[in-house]
Amino acid sequence: MLHLFNLLHLSGGNSGIGKETAVALALRGARVIIACRDPERAAKAVREIKMRSHNMNVLHMHLDLANLRAIREFCKAFLQKEKRLDILINNAGMPSVLDWTDDNFSMCFGVNHLGHFLLTNLLLGRLKESAPSRIITLTCSNYKYQKLDFQDLNYNLLPFFTYCRSKLANIYFTQELARLMEGKGVTAYSVHPGYVSSAWTCHYSILFRMLMQVVMFMFFVPCELGAQTVVHCAVADGVTQHSGCYFSDCRPAALRPFAKDPSVAKKLWEASERLVGLP
C-alpha cells in the first residue's frame, strides 16, 4: 500500500464524494488536508471527518478554484507549511451552470479544468519530491457527448455541453500529465465515480432540486459508494501500472477513441499553460 502522509483534498472535500474520500483515507491513517472556499462548511466537515475516522490529523486550508490568484496564494502557503504531498485529489467540480470565474473563464472550464491544471502544476515539485505519489482527477462519463473546440475552449452557451467539455479536458489532462511524469515517480488517474447522490443541485432552482431529489433517490448511488474508485486509485498497489488511465468501478475503463488522442492532450496542455499564465 502507498505510504500516506499528506492528502490534499480540493474544494468539495467538505461534502459529497470529497468528504467520504477524506473519511476513508483518514481511517487509513492519512494526514488529510481539505481545501475549500467556505471556512464554516470546511470546519464542520473537519469535525465530522475527525469524529468518524478517530484521526485528529485533519485540517483545512482556504482555496477558491475560480480565482487564479487565490490558487497561487494557496500553493505558496501549502508549500511553506507542508514538506510532503503523497496524494493530490482534484475533487472539486462545478455542475452545468452559466457563470464565469473571476478571471473571465466559463465556470465549468475554469474550475473543473484550469483551476486543477494550475494547482497541480504548482504542486508538481512537491509531488516529485514525495515520490511515489499520485494525482487523481475526478471526471464524468458525460465526456463522451462533446469534443473540444480549440477555437472556443471557453465555450459557455449550453451549460451541459460546457460541463461535458470540462470533463473531457480532465481526461486529456490526466493523460498528458502521466506522459510528462513518466519515470519521475508520479502517476495520474482520471476517475468517473458514477452518478452520485450529492449536493450538486444547490446551484439550481428549488423546482429543479426537488425533481432531482426524486431522480437521485431512484437511480443514483450514495456518496460513500461513489468514493470507492477514488480511494482505490489512491491506495491500491496495482494501479501504478495504469498511469494516465480512466477508471470506473475500481478498474480501468474504455474511453471513446477521440478521448485517447495524445496530440489533442498535448495541445490542450499547451493551451492551458497560456491561459493560466504558466511559463
TrEMBL record:
The keyword Nucleotide-binding does not apply. Keywords: Oxidoreductase. Gene3D superfamilies: NAD(P)-binding Rossmann-like Domain. One of its GO terms (molecular function) is oxidoreductase activity. It holds the Pfam family adh_short. Belongs to the short-chain dehydrogenases/reductases (SDR) family. This is Si:dkey-174n20.1.
